[in-house]
Amino acid sequence: MDGVILHSNPLHRAAWELYSRRFGIEVDEAMHQRMYGRRNDDIVRDFFGPQLTPEQVHEHGAAKERLYREMMGPVINQSLVPGVREFLERHRDLPLAMATSAEPENVDFLLERARLRPYFRAVVDGHQVQHPKPHPEIYLKAAEVLGVPLHDCVAFEDSFAGVQSAQAAGMAVVGVLTTHGELPGVDLEIRDFNSPELEPWLAKR
């Protein structure tokens, strides 16, 4: 979701910086890079320390995400990755799933506010699996729910952890270059969903 459907990582970065600063923690670039593609509980323990109780981890994550949604709300439609709505409309007859490390509240926020829910037959978030990305569990579960063989699936990913997850599940991977300048090892790299090479590549699969 983040970085593939919604160009949200700049606001996630800003929200983490603002929230962490309340506790005297300055988020540097290395911390931001470790954030991409990971589940909130992993990020909170990374930023705030492993000594936190599960309740404290949840409270920090939930508070940061409320701040993020406040920031994203006014600009959500302008923040969709270019061409993604048209891409989903073109392929709406295919079994499409969202497999994301994002918090469930953020998933619902996007699907409702941007009116994207009808396109997805399955939505699997990081709280529905035991092992977060880069473990393949989330993609295995999404394919199982769709009833599609893994070798017939194409995953769209913007993060290194996400690419590893999808490849470990046995899927082809399209790298969306919204977060990183390159994603080594993917089957195709695109700037966004308007990239002219995307549809011809899909047609050959």
Structure description:
It is a single chain. The protein has 205 residues and is mostly helical. It folds into 2 domains: 9-75, DNA polymerase, domain 1, CATH 1.10.150; 84-203, HAD superfamily/HAD-like (Rossmann fold), CATH 3.40.50. Helix content is 44%, strand content 10%. The chain has 9 helices and 5 strands. The protein has helices at 9-21, 29-35, 40-48, 54-72, 84-90, 104-113, 137-146, 160-168, 198-203, and strands at 97-100, 122-125, 154-157, 172-176, 188-190. The strands form 2 sheets. It has a 3-stranded parallel beta sheet with strand order 3-4-5, with helices on one face. The chain has a two-stranded parallel sheet with strand order 1-2. Strand 1, helix 6 (104-113) and strand 2 form a beta-alpha-beta unit. Helix 1 packs across helix 4 (54-72) and helix 3 packs across helix 4. It is globular, with a radius of gyration of 17 Å.
Secondary-structure blueprint of this entry?
Layout: H1 9-21, H2 29-35, H3 40-48, H4 54-72, H5 84-90, E1 97-100, H6 104-113, E2 122-125, H7 137-146, E3 154-157, H8 160-168, E4 172-176, E5 188-190, H9 198-203
Parallel strand pairs: 1-2, 3-4, 4-5
Helix pairs in contact: 1-4, 3-4
